[in-house]
Amino acid sequence: MTDVVATNETILVVGGGVSGMTTALEAAEAGKQVILVEKRPYVGGRISQLYKYFPKLCFPTCGLEINQRRAKMNPNVTVLTMAEVSSLTGSEGNYSATIKISPRYVNENCTACGACEDAVEAEFDDEYNYGLSKHKGAYRAHRMAYPERYVIDPAMIGTADADKAKAACKFDAIDLDMQEETVELKVGAVVYATGWKPYDANKIQPYGYDRYPNVITSVEFERMNDPMGPTGGKILRPSDGKEAKDIAFIQCAGSRDRNYLKHCSRICCMASLKQTTYASDAGAKSTIYYIDIRAIDRFEDFYQNVQNDENVSFIKSKVANITLGENDNPVLNGVDTEGYNRYATPHELVVLAVGMEPSIDASTLPEGISINEHGFIENDGTNGGIFAAGCASDALDVNRAVQSATACALKAIQVVNRVAGSEG
Ligand SMILES: Cc1cc2nc3c(=O)[nH]c(=O)nc-3n(C[C@H](O)[C@H](O)[C@H](O)COP(=O)(O)OP(=O)(O)OC[C@H]3O[C@@H](n4cnc5c(N)ncnc54)[C@H](O)[C@@H]3O)c2cc1C
What we know:
single chain, 424 residues, FAD/NAD(P)-binding domain
């Protein structure tokens, strides 16, 4: 049984990406009790799926490692993975939360030795790699996944493979009888840090993501470039496994468009500019098709550096549609709005810069929570002791997400301090 102690001076953080971890750690390091609830088997969120960060082009693993170390060292933070809030009621300073914890089928005896993984054959789509690869039925999502513990895919339970995994474990860490648990908590303040998800590219019919193998998304491109990722860091065409040397990036793919996502995610321009550096490093040419490039503030220098790269060209145009050419090459059709020339240009690989939408389904949020027209949670003072950090509140880069998360830690601390003050 999971044993969690919480009072109405405790802060509940929902979502363990960089924002949730920041809120949890800042509050815990200020002496507050924090419960961090993460639905995946590991914390870190979507930054753990990026290859490099703009603007410095450093690896997200570095920041992740620091946060994980802070979490391990701080007894004020309790991390619950594979956990979700199934109900939240109450008011500022006095919330009741029900947390549902799914079985991992692996207990704390696990040393992450990998013997269970070696023992099983069953494979399942790997969510961490956006389905570009499979993971074994006993797996660890990535080499830095924290908690450092394996997971058994629930689809493997009851099969001979599950028994093989158990038999292979020398540490008695596999418990195939583990059941779903429900934990009831009292907390004083709640911070939603549930982040974002990529807009579903299947919905953008004119771009043929569902039909053309060499049309992929920006998040898949991140995984492809990671040396530990599904292609070993090589930019390979899904149709024939050949290295792509001529890559098109389509900006605002399904964004700023009333048919799809109305809002601008602000990150996608910088993400594509960053991704041209991956392409250049691999000896490939990039063409960016854009409406306007939104590289704000300090990102302007990054944009200029990319403009100076002779391997990168820019075409000011909203691509109308994609058709299929020879050799499975996607052909981009549209009008270039600088020369007003029609084009029909084949490329070896196309990367759709898809927008960011809120990951949490608004219907699962407590009644009365204020949400904007794009589904992001508002921090407008009407939500009592409930706040939204990072991409739960807007599409943000890491720097801004962390600032927002720190601000939420302060707001939550103020709420629980008021509780402590009124009780003392
Ligand atoms: C293609 C692309 C490239 C990018 N590259 C960069 C870059 O180079 N530099 C940069 O600064 N930014 C970049 N970003 C933006 C960056 O990914 C975000 O700023 C960052 O992920 C925000 O972190 P977060 O914690 O707010 O959200 P997330 O990373 O989405 O984390 C949210 C967490 O909450 C969990 N969760 C969701 N719902 C629930 C629930 N109901 N219950 C419990 N847990 C839940 C999720 O599993 C996840 O772990 C990029 C974005 C894109 C689209």
